[in-house]
Design brief:
The structure is a single chain. The protein is built from six helices and 13 strands. The chain has about 240 residues and is of the alpha/beta class. It folds into two domains: about 5-70, Ribosomal Protein L25, Chain P, CATH 2.40.240.20; about 80-235, Alpha/beta knot (3-Layer(aba) Sandwich). Strands 6, 7, 8, 9, 10, 11, 12 and 13 form an eight-stranded parallel β-sheet that branches. The two termini are about 20 Å apart.
Length: about 240
């Protein structure tokens, strides 16, 4: 496979482009690409450009070739509202959700979230999560980068939520995704933390018009549940 890289800016129509230091380091030192090898640059807004790597000392340049607009986005708009999970589980969820075609990811603080972030740490984690999304686009061929939104409390998100349908994953939920009719607009899928939603959180979701949905008789981990839901939705109404 040809290596793909996100270029953080507008891509010129033609000519030669100096690669940013971080991108050049990844291409030359991590992937060990050689002078003259093919690569693809994409701008995160839909365009990608075929290019050839030109190496001069420690610097890398891209000789730009054909530019094209390739749409690999799902026709389904799914927003994954993921309760904070501990360790590297959030990285895993974001990476795989991007591969599965999610349109946006909204981290939320839940009552039973093991991970607790101060404002400063939340900003650092947000920057890291956004880079995880970029890397997942590079790997999966997506030319548009899904938005990873700033962390919010669940209550605040529910109070502001007005756009599209809302489904909260809950063991013993009233219906499964295969029982639902397709509704217009974005589909929001709410996934609880390791300890699950509390009764008060589920009541708040009910009050905000969210529907409780089950993924079957087995209890799935937080890092599994949202991805399973995305796969089901893509199979029903997306591009699987």
């Amino acid at each position: 496979m040809i290596s793909r890289f996100h270029y953080p800016g507008a891509l010129p129509e033609c000519g030669e482009l100096a690669l940013p230091d971080e991108l050049a380091h990844h291409a030359l030192r991590v992937l060990r690409l050689r002078d003259g090898e093919a690569l693809i640059l994409f701008d995160g807004r839909g365009d990608e450009v075929e290019a050839r790597l030109s190496v001069r000392g420690k610097a890398g340049f891209a000789v730009l070739g054909e530019r094209r607009r390739v749409n690999r986005e799902s026709p389904l708009q799914v927003v994954l509202v993921q309760a904070l999970a501990a360790s590297d589980k959030m990285d895993w969820v974001i990476q795989k959700a991007v591969e599965l075609g999610v349109s946006a990811i909204q981290p939320v603080q839940a009552e039973r979230s093991v991970l607790r972030l101060s404002a400063e740490r939340a900003e650092k984690r947000l920057a890291h999560w956004r880079q995880v999304a970029v890397a997942a686009c590079e790997q999966s061929g997506r030319n548009r980068i899904p938005e990873v939104r700033a962390l919010q409390g669940l209550g605040k998100w529910l109070a502001a939520h007005r756009d599209g349908s809302c489904h909260v994953l809950a063991p013993g939920g009233e219906v499964g995704f295969t029982d639902l009719a397709r509704l217009p607009g974005p589909i929001h899928v709410l996934v609880g933390p390791e300890g699950g939603w509390t009764d008060s959180e589920l009541a708040a979701c009910d009050g905000a018009g969210c529907r409780r949905v089950t993924l079957g008789p087995r209890v799935l981990r937080t890092e599994t549940a949202g991805l399973a839901a995305l796969a089901v939705l893509q199979a029903r109404w997306g591009d699987f």
